[in-house]
Amino acid sequence: MPRSSAAQAAPPTLESLAEQLRDGPLKCLTALQDHAEALADQQPVGSRELLEHLQNLVSLAQCSMTRFYEFTAELRTLVDHVTQQSAPDAGDRH
Q1: How far apart are alpha carbons 34 and 64 in whole angstroms?
Q2: CA-to-CA distance for 75 and 94, rounded, in angstroms?
Q3: pLDDT tens digit string along 30-80?
Q4: 29, 55, 65, 89 - which has most CB atoms within 10 Å?
């Protein structure tokens, strides 16, 4: 069965990965840091407000981890592609 064009898509480039890193996990980490600083600077009023702040931190942390994992997978794809391209007689090895 022939592979779809999406399955044969070119591997990510270094430039696209740099943009993904900036726009994805690093942006989430910056938001997480800003939120943590804001939380440290204020005293939540009551347990409900504290719980809301903590839930927001958990969401931001999960966002950061997810986006960083996705980025790392894309980076691994690029490394594998470059490794295959640079290996001598890559098609003959098995």
Answers
A1: 13
A2: 24
A3: 887 887 788 778 777 889 988 988 888 888 788 878 888 888 888 888 888
A4: 29
